Amino acid sequence: MHAWPASEVPALPGQGRDLRIHDTATGGSITLDPGPVARIYVCGITPYDATHIGHAATYNAFDLVQRVWLDTKRQVHYVQNVTDVDDPLLERAERDGVDWAALAEQETELFREDMTALRMLPPRQYIGAVEAIPGIVPLVERLRDLGAAYELEGDTYFSVEADPHFGQVSHLDTAAMRLLSAERGGDPDRPGKKNPLDPMLWSAAREGEPSWDGGSLGRGRPGWHIECVAIALDHLGMGFDVQGGGSDLVFPHHEMGASHAQVLTGEFPMAKAYVHAGMVALHGEKMSKSKGNLVFVSRLRRDGVDPAAIRLALLAHHYRADWEWTDQVLQDAVTRLGHWRAAVSRPDGPSAEALVDEIREALANDLDAPAALAAVDRWTVTQEQQGGTDAGAPGIVSRAVDALLGVAL
Predict the structure, then answer these.
(1) Which domains does the chain have, with CATH numbers?
(2) Looking at residue 216, what DSSP letter applies?
């Protein structure tokens, strides 16, 4: 599966700072110190209805991570998956009377177009669950051989008790885990499971559903968590720098994935930092496909909204915050974009060296994009009110905003 084209990242004078970021697993801030190649895995979409503003906010957060690392003169090895076979996708295809594979490809292509428009840097590997199946089956078989998986009526489950570190990503109690498991694709009430929290590794073939050769597992399809584990281990290995996604993935997805990988390899932890973006609401409720209260990036673009304004609307909120999309949020972004573009269109302006330093420091401090925007706003106001004599300043500001914030002026 191919990703989308990369926009050019302008080179800036000087060098950025190492990223200090909030780690869900420890509950505190840590300073990441990757080697020459920083490694990040971000969980991708289930392509049955893409791309809403909640998606865009999450991928914007991890785009900033990449940009901070690139500014430190590191390379970035970014991997993202596409869950192109799963219950919600099959249910939507059946509801609409369309082929599930065609629906997945259609929505994945729309996602690519949206990511390109928003200037999100693409992953080096963009891997679908279906194409990952040949690598998933041996991992499930290995977990079974290790005594960490068991069969139940043809399905194969992971035993959470096989991982002594289970629970160290989310730090939730059993009652909370069980509730979230039921809400987010698990089946804690299924009779016969060793532990209600045990997640599915391999689902035996069901009538009317797609299935693949699972070797000794029989025909079927993979569970959600093992999909990401197989892709991450194949391309990044254990101990990569950042495992990223929305806060709704903390449990069960990232918790279960970590346990799968840790049992498979005997190493801990799967990732050095677990980083999660907040949720976006509309009309007082979290944007959700099940509720249908979605604002789609593609529809905004079709309505003539500049993608740079959409990106500024996302950047106006700290990535870990839960916030609400409103018409005013978008209008504020459109207004800001207009001021910034007018400011950098002048032949000279106030010195920009301090501004670049401020943007770098803000982003290095747990991706504080609102502080970075405020710094650019201050430079813009000075430009509007006082002007300046530095002929190179507008160009430096334009390149810095593009390189570090992904906004083309």
Answers:
(1) 20-286 (3.40.50.620), 307-405 (1.20.120.640)
(2) G
- In the numeric block, the tokens 């049955």 are attached to 48
- On the question of a cis peptide bond just before residue 252, with omega within 30 degrees of 0, the verdict is yes
Q: 384-408 burial, b if ≥16 CB within 10 A, otherwise e? A: eeeebeeeebbebbbbbbbbbbbbb
Q: How confident is the model at residue 277 (pLDDT cuts 50, 70, 90)?
A: very high
Residues in the chain: 409
Q: pLDDT-based confidence at 284, cuts 50/70/90?
A: confident
The greatest distance separating any two alpha carbons of the chain, rounded to the nearest whole angstrom, comes to 76
DSSP-derived secondary structure letter, 161 = G
- What confidence tier does 290 reach under pLDDT thresholds 50, 70, 90? low
Alpha-carbon span 172 to 51, nearest angstrom:
30
Classify 305 as helix, strand or coil: coil
Tokens encoding 336:
């800001």
Written as six digits, the tokens of 304 are 């003539």
For 20, the 3-state DSSP assignment is strand
Q: In this structure, what are the phi and psi dihedrals at residue 124, rounded to the nearest 5 degrees?
A: -70, -40
Average pLDDT over the chain, rounded to whole? 96
pLDDT of residue 314: 98
Q: How many CB atoms lie within 10 A of CB 103?
A: 19
**What angle in degrees, to the nearest 10, is found between the helix axes of 307-315 and 327-344?**
110
What dihedral angle (degrees, nearest 10) is formed by the CA atoms of 64, 67, 72, 73?
Answer: 160
Q: What number is the average pLDDT over the span 248-276? A: 98
Pairing label, strands 125-128, 75-82:
parallel
pLDDT (average), residues 252-268: 98
- Per the CB < 8 A criterion, the answer to whether 56 and 112 are in contact is no
* The one-letter amino acid at 160: V
Residue 344 to residue 370: CA distance in whole angstroms: 20
Place of tokens 């099959």: 90
Asked whether 239 and 207 are in contact (CB, 8 A), the reply is no
What's the rounded Cα separation, in Å, for the pair 106 and 72?
Answer: 37
Q: What is the mean pLDDT of residues 27-33?
A: 96
Minimal CA–CA distance to 251: which of 361, 168, 140, 134?
Answer: 168
- 148 φ, ψ (degrees, to nearest 5): -100, 5
* Distances from the Cα of 59 to the Cα of 94, 118, 221, 249, 406, angstroms: 29, 10, 27, 14, 12
